[in-house]
Design goal:
By secondary structure, this protein is α/β, with parallel strands linked by helices. About 30% of the residues lie in helices and about 25% in strands. It has helices at about 20-25, 75-85, 100-110, 130-140, 150-165, 195-205, 220-230; strands at about 10-15, 35-40, 55-60, 60-65, 90-95, 115-120, 145-150, 170, 175-180, 185-190, 210-215, 235.
Amino acid sequence: MKRDLYFTSQHLNTAGVLGFDPARYSRQENALKLGAFVTNPLSLRSRKPAEHPQLLEYAGGFLLHSGLPNPGLDAVLKHYARKWNDSAIPVIVHLMADRPEETSRMTRRLENIENVMAVELGFAPGLSDDILRYALQMSLGELPIIMNLPYEQVLSLGPALVQSGASAISLAAPRGALPADGKLVSGRMYGPGLLPRSLEIVHAAARLGLPVIGAGGVYTLADAEAMLSVGALAVQFDAVLWKPKVS
């Protein structure tokens, strides 16, 4: 039986900002009350960091090139499954879903882990709509599936994915490039400068009737409320959670 997707608080974190341990953040003074904890991106096998990781600032935010390093599914479950079970809030596991067959294997294993509420599927840039549809099809089961889509695919592909069984659509961090040391570095973009564009997309998605989780440029409680007011199911905060307090 497919489980429901619900949030006791509409504030979530974005994958990639708080690691794999929910308690580590919740123990911090002035921690935001989260309705669910979203893990760092996780792959079937371990991934090493990018050869030259970069964090590059620009007006309105920063660009992060990391390679999405992680220890792989087996190592994460061995170390964190009990912590997820003991967590006061449910866990959403973010899976790197570029290989649908592997994603299906990971999802089946997560169905047996206590307190895992849902799976969020994230994708490398430039994948076709067909691959994303196939990844969803291969992952459907007991756990709700959240499809983490690039801005440009939220409105074009989101409705078909929801009709095919996705429980919600979330906004992936947009990508960009900046010069550094004579080279062009590409990566994921974060910062309050993203809010106008992401808010516009969330508004349009909600008007289409999509269950959409807003993200991108949410740096204050007022930003989150703006997204909720235009119809977001919930809102994900990203790098602002590295600060002592969200105000």
